[in-house]
Amino acid sequence: MGTIWIRELKGGLDVRRLPETSPGGTLLRGRDGHITRGGDFEQRAVFAPAYSLPAGLTKGMAFTPAGLVVFGHQTAPTLPAGVTYQRLQHPSGSALVDVPYAALYKSKLQVIGEFADGSRHVFYDGSRVTDANAPPQRAGSGRPNVLLTNVEKMFIGSGENLFFSAVGDSTDYGAGAGAGEGFIVMSTHAEGGETIVGLAPYDLYTAVFGRDVVLIWYFDPDPNLSRKNQTLNNTGTLAARSVTQFGDGDLFYLDTSGIRSLRARDSSNSAATTDIGSPIDEIIAEQVASLGEAVAAKATGIIEPRDGRFWLSIGDRIYVFSYFAASKVSAWTEYRPGFTVDSMVRWNDRVWLRSGDTIHVYGSLPGLPFQYADSVSAEAWLPYLDADTPAKEKTLTGVDAAVRGTWEIRVAMDPTNEDASDLIARIDRTTFGLGDIPGQGKFNHISLRFRSLTPVSATVPAKFSSAVIHFEGGEDEDS
Known about the structure:
By secondary structure, the protein is mostly beta strands. The protein has 2 domains: about 1-45 and about 375-479, Jelly Rolls (Sandwich), CATH 2.60.120; about 45-360, 7 Propeller (Methylamine Dehydrogenase, Chain H), CATH 2.130.10.10. The protein is built from 2 helices and 42 strands. The strands form 10 sheets. Strands 1, 5, 6, 35, 38, 39, 41 and 42 form an 8-stranded mixed β-sheet that branches. The protein has a 5-stranded antiparallel β-sheet with strand order 4-34-40-36-37, with no helix packed on it. The protein has a 4-stranded antiparallel β-sheet with strand order 7-33-32-31, with no helix packed on it. Strand 13 (about 120-125) and strand 14 form a beta hairpin. It starts with a strand and ends with a strand.
C-alpha cells in the first residue's frame, strides 16, 4: 500500500509545465478561490450587486473620501444614495464615452474624459482644465493617458510629453501665477518614450512607463532639481491602470509578456524587473489575445484591503496574487465574477466593481460580514501526481481529504485528456480517521479535482486543506 500526500497548496496556479510534470503543492486550475496564509484553498466571497445606475447615462467610476462617483456629459440623472455624479462637458458638446483614468488631488478628482469625437480632455472637480500650456490645448501635446499626484503637483502623461502642474495647483501649467510647472519630452530620453502609458511612485522616484521602456525619474517641486535616474528597456505596460504598488517596494504591471514586477535589485535601489506572473503568463496571454489589446488596455490593478491580495482585472477575469512571506505563500488563482469589469476601485475597505450599469461590491457592504454562497463554486485541480514512479502502473484504492463545507471530489487519470474525470465522493467533513473514500482505477499519473458545493455558512467559506491518495503498486511521496 502506498500513499501520495498533498500537504498544502502554497504554489497556487502554475501552468508552466505539462500537467503530468507539474510539482505537488501547485494547481492546474484554481478558480473562484484563493490561497490562505496557511496554504489552504478557500472559496471566494460573493460579488454582490450594490447599486443600479440609470441605463446608459453614466460612464466610469472613481471615488473621493465622501464616496463613489460616476460621470456623464448631461445634467445629473437620478442616482442611488451612495453614488454622486460629475458632469464632464466637451468644449463642442461631444458625448462622453469613457473615463480612462482618475486621480485624487486635494481630495478632489482629476480625471481624463474621452469623447465620441475621439478627443480626450482633463478635468478637475468637474471643470475642464483650460490652461493653454496643458494637454490637449498645447500644440503637439499628444493624447492624455494617465495621471499621478506627486511632489505637490499633478503629472499628466500625454503622448510623449510628461506635463507637471504648478506646486499646489493641478490646473496651472504655466498660464497661472504658480511656480514649478513645465513638461518633459520623454522620447528625447529613451527610445520607446514616444507614448507615456503609465505613472507610479517607486521608492523615492517615479516610474514612467512606455509600452517597451520604463524610465526611473527623481522629481522635485523645483523642476531644475529633477533628473532621470535609470532606463529599463524591453519592458513596459499596455494598461495604465494595471500599474499597482504592492508592498513596500514592488510595482506590478501588465506587460505584453505577462504580469511583471519592478523592484529594487540591491541596496542602491536600482530597479530591475522580475517575472512575478510567470506561473500564469500563458493564461494571461490567452485572455489578452481573446479580448484584444483595446480591452486589455483597460486592465486594472488593485490591492484588496481585507487580506492585501493583488487583483488584476482583465475583461471578465480577475487574477489574484496571494503573498504571505512568513508562511512562504506566493500563489496565483483566478476569480470569474460572472460579468465584465469596466472599472474597479478600492474605497471604504471594500472593492467596488462596475459592469455596465451595475456597481458590485466584493464580500458585503461596509460594516457587514463577508458573504459566501452555493453559487460560487471554487475549483482546485491538483497536478497529475505519480508517487515518484511515473513509468509504473498503480491501482487506486481510495482517497482522504481535509475540508470545511461541502465539496465534490473527482479523479482524473489521463493527462492527455484533462477534461475526463470521474466523480468519487461528496464530503462535508474531514475524512481522516473515518475510513478511506473508496476509489478504483489503474493509473500512472493521477489528479484529484475539488469543487465546493456549499460554504460552511453564509459567513464562513468552504475550504480545502490537504488530501491523501491511497494506492497499490508504488512508493510513498509527500507533496
